[in-house]
Design goal:
Elements: H1 2-7, H2 12-22, H3 29-39
Length: 65
């Protein structure tokens, strides 16, 4: 098994996806969720996204009026 793993540099999810597709596609809920996970990458939730706010200076070089 180790020799096969050293030749094959694929990740676990990719290997599982390839195996599912070779056998005719997802049949049950677990194989379907694995295929969905591979085909649609996980997007960060809105709480994880950070908003970058930049402040623009108004007026002259000192920032005042």
């Amino acid at each position: 098994m180790k020799k096969k793993q050293s030749k094959n540099k694929k990740g676990i999810l990719e290997t599982m996806y390839d195996t599912i597709m070779e056998k005719g596609g997802p049949v049950g809920p677990i194989s379907q969720s694995l295929v969905d996970l591979w085909e649609k990458p996980i997007e960060p939730s809105p709480e994880d996204k950070k908003i970058i706010i930049s402040y623009l200076k108004k007026g002259g070089s000192d920032g005042g009026e």
